[in-house]
Amino acid sequence: MKPLDLLIAITVPMIWGAGFTVAKGTFDQFPPIFLMGMRFSIAALVLIWFVKPMWDQAGRLFLAALVGGMLAYSLQFTGLNGMDASTAVLIVQLEVVFVSLFAGIFFKDKLAWQQWIAMAFAILGVALIAGEPRIQSNPLPFILVIAGGIIWAGGQILIKSIGQVGGLRLIAWFSAFAGPQLLIASFIVEDGQWSAVQSASWGGWVAVAYLALIMTATGYALWFRLIGIYRMNQIIPFILLVPVTSIIGSVLFLGEHLTPYVLIGGAIVLASVGFIHLWKVKATTKPEPSLPESTGNPAP
Question: Most buried residue, 63, 129, 137, 139, by most Cβ within 10 Å?
Answer without folding.
Answer: 129
